[in-house]
Amino acid sequence: MSDDALPMKFKPYTRQTITQAPQWQRLPTELREAVQVISRVLPFRTNQYVMDELIDWNDVPNDPIYRLTFPHQDMLSPPEYAHLRDLVLVKKDEAAIEAAVRTIRMRMNPHPAGQMTHNVPFMNGQPVSGLQHKYKETVLFFPSSGQTCHAYCTFCFRWPQFVGMDELKFDARESDELVAYLKQHPEVTDVLITGGDPLIMNTRSLAGYIEPLLAPELSHIKNIRIGTKSVAYWPQRFVTDKDSDDLLRLFEKVVAAGKNLALMGHYNHPAELRPAIAQRAVKRIVSSGATLRMQAPLIRHINEDPKGWAELWTTGVRLGAIPYYMFVERDTGPSHYFQLPLAKAYEIFQAAYQTVSGLARTVRGPSMSAFPGKVVIDGIVDIAGEKVFALQFLQARNPDWVRRPFYAKFDPNATWLHDLKPAFGAKKFFFEEDSVAHIAVVGHSERTHADAAPRPALALAANG
Ligand code: SF4
């Protein structure tokens, strides 16, 4: 399709406005009700491009991009759904709806992996809002005007940010504190600007966050990463938006300053990379000197087919992108609806990996972004008569844990690290021995946190 036929002006749809979308009338009543009910709990936002170009309306509700952006009844338990449906559609009791919604949200483990506790750094004894510092060399920065997205993914692990759970929200208004923090932390080499989606911002606002990172006193910052889903949900951002050329000039400026600029592109399904404009977006990003890495979680109902992953990675490589991560879906939000057993995740990853060129085998996975670090499943093997998962840390709170193989008893139903037990009769995994001592291994180590993690050390949970 030529660009002329595409939506050019970004037009989001929310719970309040989705009824105005031309496709809304095509939905049967029960699907419309599910949107109206579930979007009280989980954020809902889509846009005209996603609806016109990415969803096959003849295949709704099974179409993967429909599942990716539209709430489904099964995302709540049957009693929860029945209760909330009654309140929303029959009783229309706002106070009761609010109370029920809050209860459901708090059940959904809104902040996995100690995001709101152990990852928030301190400077001069005060927490620095809008920053996370989990791994020694990488700081995450959440600019306040980048805390929304061109559309919301139904599985998103950052969903609390989008539903006004203000006490759980974290964002930064400007980059002064980030720069001050980075000056005190010469061990940091990478800044990941994330959200939400920082590319929801116009180029001028984004430059206001990025350009200070190019200052000579921050020469230890080698890599600037931007986490974004715009490559899939609004590729116009790089091609036809009125400041898309300015955006590419900004990318070039970062590269000319001697930094590596890496876009961490969030692609869930090959359909997102099929439109010509999505392919042009990749080429324009790469031609600016930036790199584009592809990552996404493995999600039941959306991307379970190994052939889809192979198509995604192969197309990406052809266009100049780099396959990077297949994540395991986190234990938050409606995870029961999206999660797959680890054994199945490994099987899907292996089946996809086996069929692609060596150039696409830059991808790593399936990987869990858990509380102690990023744990990858290397294989399922028999050792000394015991069937085990072979695992290792790709990234860890304690750098000494990285690339140290360890083993867990095989469990066909396990969906997350906290489900696993050590193999070979061990009582604990090696990293549990000293996990408390290593919780503060990064910049915020100047202060011991009294905060409890939302789950036990091993137990915790990205695009990000
Ligand atoms: S997964 Fe990324 S793009 Fe999707 S809603 Fe979450 S932050 Fe936004």
Output the keywords.
single chain, 464 residues, alpha/beta, TIM Barrel, 2 domains, two-stranded antiparallel sheet, 15 strands, 29% helix, globular, binds iron/sulfur cluster, Aldolase_TIM, S-adenosyl-L-methionine, rSAM
Would you give an account of this structure?
The protein is α/β, with parallel strands linked by helices. The protein has 2 domains: 3-107, no CATH class; 112-459, TIM Barrel, CATH 3.20.20.70. 29% of the residues lie in helices and 17% in strands. It contains 15 helices and 15 strands. It has helices spanning 29-38, 48-54, 64-69, 78-91, 94-107, 159-162, 176-183, 203-210, 230-233, 236-239, 244-256, 276-287, 306-319, 335-338, 342-354, and strands at residues 12-13, 46-47, 122-123, 126-127, 131-135, 138-141, 190-193, 223-228, 260-266, 291-298, 322-328, 364-369, 373-383, 386-396, 406-409. The strands form 3 sheets. It has an 11-stranded mixed β-sheet with strand order 5-6-7-8-9-10-11-12-13-14-15. The chain has a two-stranded antiparallel ribbon with strand order 1-2. Strands 3-4 form a two-stranded antiparallel ribbon. Strand 9, helix 12 and strand 10 (291-298) form a beta-alpha-beta unit. The radius of gyration is 22 Å and the shape is globular. It starts with 11 loop residues before the first strand and ends in a 55-residue tail after the last strand. Mean pLDDT is 89; it is low at 437-464. Iron/sulfur cluster binds at residues 149, 152-153, 156, 158, 195-197, 229, 266, 463. Residues 149, 152-153, 156, 158, 195-197, 229, 266, 463 line the site of iron/sulfur cluster. Keywords: 4Fe-4S, Iron, Iron-sulfur, Metal-binding, Pyridoxal phosphate, S-adenosyl-L-methionine. This is Lysine 2,3-aminomutase.
